[in-house]
Amino acid sequence: MAFLKKRHVxxxxxxxxxYIVSLMVSFLTHRLIKKHTQLxxxxxxxxxxxxxxxxxxxAVLEHECRHLHIESQQLMNELVFPMAGNKAVMEPALxxxxxxxxxxxxxxxxxxxxxxxxxxxxxxxxxxxxxxxRKEAYFQAVKKLFTLVLAISRSTLEAEPEKMDHEKxxxxxxxxxEIDLDDFQKLRRRATEFYxxxxxxxxxxxxxxVRDEVDQKIG
Length: 219
Known about the structure:
Blueprint lengths: L1 H5 L8 H23 L6 H25 L3 H13 L2 H18 L3 H10 L3 H4 L10 H21 L10 H12 L3 H37 L2
Helix pairs in contact: 2-3, 2-4, 2-10, 5-10, 8-9, 8-10
């Protein structure tokens, strides 16, 4: 590894440091994905626990760096931060989350909470004018909108993303289910929030093994 070679440290002399670096990169990758996708907080207690885990990792990292006579901030700047922001590190996690969200769409686990919260004035701060008369059409429209949000998000991973006319897609959905413009805009907002909640949930699940490893191995 170039960083260690530059400092005359053999890789086989730094297994502890490299292990902590891998965990730190995983934590920061998770944080970057959450930041870039502007995800809601679905588990405040877990978020607080993550801060504690990151502090523990930082303390062990400092210890390992002192032992090897390495400047910890240089390690963060030259190795950890670039790795955490690297597409090769982020992409597998994102693809896994997208697969899980995709599998959710046709399931009852999507339908039940969607139907339970699609018309909730206390939650949304507004009401759908024609929902009571057209519940199935509105649900199907949200399902299509949710699928479109997923497709747009997923396309960012492709080297040559498929060109999509998003405005046409939206208008086709609105026309198919014959929804007036005001209610349709409200459905778009709901679909986007449902997507963010699902994404946050599955991202947390994908990241959970890293949390477990820190809890088990980092005192």
